[in-house]
Design a protein that fits this description.
- This protein is of the alpha/beta class.
- The structure holds 2-acetamido-2-deoxy-beta-D-glucopyranose (NAG) (11 copies).
- Pfam families: Alpha-L-AF_C (PF06964), ASD1_dom (PF22848).
- It is an enzyme of class 3 (hydrolase).
- Pathway: Glycan metabolism; L-arabinan degradation.
Length: 649
């Protein structure tokens, strides 16, 4: 039976591509295959998926980014100063805000207002808050969620002060608005009686409900957007995020643990101080909540920057190798071990399920990065880790085979290859892994189509602008690339689009997989998200051979099987000038058998999903049709240019 689809780019109809799919004879497919790449790139973590609503909640600072009062606003004529009081809240959080009445204060209340991370979503739900106070005060505090644009107060609560002189005292509260605010232009306000004089505040926190109700957890809507992708792995805690720049502040796992008051924070890689509220345990819980495998990245002695001292010598690196063993003991060790006991003390008796450790991030970045990584940095980690944890899969970050370990043993290292390019170039890379090592596997830890096509097929030019949003032609080229990877599921561990998130109110990098604001109704799932969603939700255990009377291009495909008779055929059409008819037969599938064909399309290659004037524009269309196998058991259907399709039987 022939099913016709509306075609977008049709000049005629070519003769059919005939494909015979065998039942056996292929290769096992990596169970990881589709995964996640995320890091706190301009407020994707703090201000993003990490659900804390208060911006600059604890006045964390460093040499690189000194503590600031931004974006706090005084109310009632209050006067703010940052202070390192003689009694700090904690060693980690020495700096607090002093809120004092000024000559401008009327005799009512004074306080402090926080605009959130470019707004606060207010809904009828429970918000969990807390703050710490230093200074004697007998009155009450008032906490509220208010509109920034009108006089509306959505929730307000008085709580009696428990504060005392010479002591930091925590106050906890819950706010439950009875109605939703019309938009996210809302603020949080904390006030007290001006007659109290000056009080110091620190760690002022407010959380909405989180994913799986985790305390200190993640935004549910953004977690759902990740879960929709059916991911299998997650590289934590990111790529460049682990490195630190010329100020030499690499990510330190052991300073991201425990109560928030014990986390000093650190200067991140994207121009601001990170709270580290999203710490190692939170990343691991995130993996648990999405049932995905962590790929733990550890710093391998390369700072970002071109100074002479941005690579550690072997002697300087040795303590970091020890530190990695400590971190692995924290994650994997028995409760009787030093760091296993630390884990247990934090409430996690059972070890986490960790199988992959990546040594650094793009350590081939500089000339001396690549050479030192190949000569000593990778092997120091490989040797030390595999001696203690021979079952761990160790991944080099060089993206090639310049640094390998364990050849010929049962734990050969893998490598993490990254690519940012243009649509045409991606399509030419369909066969990239056909001859790749099956022993030293590849993780495609970052990929994205970031620029448009030129007259010639070339890769990215970092001196030119990138596209603001993933385009449809880019997403289709990523589909072709992904099918090439799936065909080599025995050589490739998996792939993850990067970056995962874009905070539309402060971003440094586009295009991104998921874009968001404080208002969940404005979340944009990119064209690339649609493609990954379709491909990742149609997994199979093993590839199977496909015999065809046509070469690849403009159609690219892969076929796989899970249970006998249960096939998955995936195809993407790139550069077709006319409709592409298919006739696909699966071994053992007879006339009358049913199949389901899902087809993604968009109005044209340059269209993209976006947020325009606060409204989500979604150009991707998904058509799902039931097909019935005709004579000889073949499924016949037709696709147009820039279609991405999956047929399952
Ligand atoms: C299985 O792997 C072999 C060896 O790498 C390769 O030649 C063959 O094309 C693969 N088969 C399928 C169906 O992917
Ligand atoms: C607090 O102490 C830190 C660390 O010594 C210092 O860098 C910072 O400037 C101090 N802040 C204030 C407000 O005194
Ligand atoms: C009082 O208000 C004036 C006008 O808004 C402002 O310029 C001044 O800085 C305020 N003084 C204090 C101590 O807050
Ligand atoms: C504050 O209260 C005192 C005493 O009642 C009064 O003298 C003063 O005028 C008040 N100030 C303002 C700004 O209202
Ligand atoms: C509401 O907040 C958003 C995000 O900060 C901002 O872009 C917008 O201008 C605000 N709207 C108004 C009317 O102030
Ligand atoms: C974290 O580990 C480093 C290296 O072992 C150590 O210097 C530092 O004091 C530790 N920090 C905490 C908070 O334990
Ligand atoms: C797609 O078509 C364009 C225009 O004919 C051509 O320049 C480009 O090389 C083609 N790309 C691929 C991957 O076939
Ligand atoms: C893989 O190897 C085959 C046989 O040597 C060769 O024909 C083909 O061009 C190679 N493919 C790639 C992508 O290098
Ligand atoms: C990234 O975030 C920092 C801190 O909020 C901000 O100063 C910087 O301008 C942001 N970068 C971009 C490109 O928006
Ligand atoms: C597919 O199999 C059928 C039946 O054996 C055969 O007639 C046909 O030629 C095959 N097609 C290709 C492309 O090999
Ligand atoms: C395919 O994988 C699933 C889930 O991993 C497993 O239950 C099933 O037995 C596998 N089927 C085959 C044919 O290997």
């Amino acid at each position: 039976m022939l099913r016709l689809f509306p075609l977008i780019f049709v000049a005629g109809i070519a003769s059919a591509i005939n494909l015979n799919v065998s039942a056996t004879g292929g290769n096992a497919s990596s169970p990881l295959m589709y995964g996640l790449m995320f890091e706190d790139i301009n407020h994707s973590g703090d201000g993003g998926i990490y659900a804390e609503l208060i911006q600059n909640r604890a006045f964390q600072g460093s040499t690189e980014y000194p503590s600031t009062l931004e974006p706090w606003v005084p109310t009632g004529g209050a006067f703010f100063t940052l202070q390192n009081t003689s009694i700090p809240l904690s060693k980690a959080l020495p700096t607090s805000i002093s809120v004092a009445p000024s000559s401008n204060s009327t005799n009512g209340t004074i306080g402090l207002l926080n605009p959130g991370w470019w707004g606060i979503e207010v809904k009828p739900q429970k918000y969990t808050g807390s703050f710490w106070v230093l200074g004697a005060y007998k009155g009450k505090f008032t906490v509220s969620l208010q509109s920034d644009l009108a006089d509306d107060v959505f929730a307000s609560l008085d709580l009696p002060s428990k504060s005392e002189s010479g002591k930091w005292v925590e106050h906890k509260f819950e706010l439950e608005p009875s109605v939703a605010a019309p938009n996210s232009n809302n603020t949080f306000i904390l006030e007290f009686d001006a007659s109290a004089g000056a009080l110091n505040f620190n760690l002022i926190s407010l959380f909405p409900p989180t994913y799986n109700d985790r305390p200190n957890g993640n935004r549910p809507d953004l977690m759902d957007a990740l879960k929709d992708l059916n991911p299998s792995f997650f590289r934590i805690p990111g790529g460049n995020n682990i490195e630190g720049d010329s100020y030499h502040y690499p990510w330190r796992w052991n300073e991201t643990l425990g109560p928030l008051a014990e986390r000093p924070g650190r200067p991140g890689t994207w121009g601001y101080e990170n709270t580290d509220g999203l710490g190692l345990v939170e990343y691991l819980n995130w993996c648990t909540d999405l049932s995905i495998t962590p790929v733990l990245a550890v710093w391998a002695g390369m700072y970002l920057g071109d100074e002479a001292d941005h690579i550690l010598t072997a002697a300087e690196l040795a303590p970091w190798v020890d530190d990695t063993l400590d971190e692995l003991e924290f994650i994997l060790g028995p409760s009787s071990s030093t760091f296993g006991a630390l884990r247990t003390s934090l409430g996690y008796r059972e070890p986490w399920d960790l199988k992959y450790v990546e040594i650094g991030n793009e350590d081939n970045l500089y000339d001396n990065g690549a050479s030192t990584y190949a000569s000593y940095r990778f092997s120091m980690f490989y040797d030390a880790i595999s001696a203690v944890y021979p079952e761990l899969n160790i991944v080099s970050s060089a993206g090639d085979y310049s640094a390998v370990g364990g050849s010929g043993t049962n734990n050969p290292s893998s490598t993490d290859f990254h690519i940012y390019t243009r649509p045409d170039y991606f399509v030419t890379q369909f066969g990239k892994f056909d001859n790749a090592s099956r022993e030293h596997k590849t993780l495609v830890g970052e990929y994205a189509c970031v620029q448009g096509n030129l007259d010639e097929v070339v890769g990215v030019d970092w001196d030119l602008p990138r596209v603001p949003w993933p385009t449809w032609v880019g997403a289709v080229s990523e589909a072709v690339w992904s099918l090439g990877i799936e065909r080599n599921g025995d050589a490739v561990l998996g792939m993850s689009y990067a970056p995962g998130f874009q905070n539309l109110d402060s971003y440094e990098w586009a295009p991104d997989l998921i874009s968001f604001t404080a208002d969940p109704s404005q979340t944009v799932l990119s064209t690339s998200h649609y493609v990954i969603n379709l491909l990742s939700n149609n997994r199979y255990n093993a590839t199977v051979p496909v015999v065809s009377d046509s070469d690849f291009g403009p159609a690219y495909w892969v076929a796989g099987v899970s249970e006998p008779g249960s096939y998955t055929f995936k195809t993407a059409i790139y550069n077709a000038t006319e409709a592409v008819p298919f006739s696909v037969s699966f071994e053992g599938v007879d006339e009358g058998a049913k199949g389901t064909l899902s087809v993604l399309s968009a109005p044209d290659g340059l269209s993209n999903n976006a947020l325009e004037d606060g409204v989500v524009v979604d150009v991707v269309k998904k058509d799902v049709k039931e097909l019935v196998a005709g004579v000889g058991g073949s499924f016949e259907f037709e696709l147009g240019n820039y279609n991405v399709a999956v047929l399952t039987t």
